[in-house]
Every structure is written in structure tokens, then in C-alpha cells.
Design a protein that fits this description.
The protein is an alpha/beta fold and about 240 residues long. Helices cover about 35% and strands about 25% of the residues. It contains eight helices and nine strands.
Amino acid sequence: MMFFMTILQRVVLKKGNMGKNEAMVVRLQKNGIISSKKVAEVMESIDRGLFVPDGIQSYVDTPLAIGYNATISAPHMHAVCLQLLLENLQPGMHALDVGSGTGYLTACFAVMVGSQGHAIGIEHIPELASTSLENIKNSAAAPFLEEGSLSIHVSDGRLGWPEFALYDAIHVGAAAPEIPQALIQQLKPGGRLVIPVGVDVQNLQVVDKKMDGSVTVRNELAVRYIPLTSLKAQLNGY
């Protein structure tokens, strides 16, 4: 009887969390952050609660500490980035998530590009990379991990991941003092890079590479991210 009640409680809890996740997405739609049906569906399918330590504030629209002087971005920032990259996250495309942290946005990318595409997460903290794999295994993105179209790698994200370049979409989850040239080089003609740039004042920048290889950069909005830096600097508090 105790075993049955434990299973039942887990089912109720899961349904409750799913409801909270869906409510989070609805709020983002009502506030005009999410305008795409596809982005809404993806964020509904990937439960944020599975990617947040202890899950206490999983669905509150705020960044949360995940250890190692790192954070998971607020839901509205994930939604903004998914909206900005929407056309570059179509089925069959290649996407790179730099500073993948708990794996949440990488999982969203995997669902969007599908089995014929490839979603790559780069995280320089081995413990976070390991945790993100477990998070993904418990999420709707698990099949993509199993078949190999989603992968997480431990590396310096400032260098990108040349093995699967060129990328249609690149997202960076930490603020660089300037745009890393390696990421521009690994961006496919027609591709888009979304990255926070700046030190004291930061802007989320949208970098588009035209078919002739030329690059345009525009500021989307003012933001506040942790620095994109070395492993040593991050562990020492920047």
C-alpha cells in the first residue's frame, strides 16, 4: 500500500508540475514574450522544473543559481532567445548552445531541430555537464540524446565546437566582452548568433551572417548575464 501511494504521489506531483510549466508558458504568451506557436509548444514539452535544482522556484520568471557561480536564465530570456532563433531552429538544422548549464535550452533546441538535425551543448564545468545529461534523460528530449542528435560536451564555449560546424543557430548563455571570432567563423552563411555582449553594460546582440559571408550586428535589448570567462575565473567568482 505504501509503495502504491508513493507512485500515486509521484504521478500527482508530475501532473502538478506540468500544469505549472504550462501556466508559465501561458503567462509568457500573455505578456507578448512568446508569439510563436512552435516556441510555446516546445517550452510546454520541456518541463523547466526538471532542469532547476530542488525545483522550488522552477516556474517563477527569474534567473536561478545552479551552483559553481552559474545560473539558469529566467524563462522570459529563454523564450526571447527561442523566438530570435526560430527560423534557424527548423528540422534538420544544426544548433550550438554555449554555456549550456542545466541543459534546458539545449533540450529545447533538440526538439526543434529534430532527429535529422543536431543540438550541441557546450559546458566547461564537468559537474554541470553531467547533471545536464541526467536532466535531459528525464525530459521529453531524452530520445534525441539516445539517438545522438543531441549531445553535451565539456569544453571552453568561447572556442565553439568545430566538429559539427557550420551552425544555423548559436546561442550563448553568458556575457562576452566582445563576440568570440570562433563563433562567427562557425556560423553558417544564413545563420544567426544570439549573444549577450558587454561588461558593465550588456546588450543581447543578434549576429546574422549573410550568404556572402558578411556579418551584421544589432542590439536587441539590455540584459544582465554572468560573464563568459575561463573555468578558473568562474569558479573563483569571476
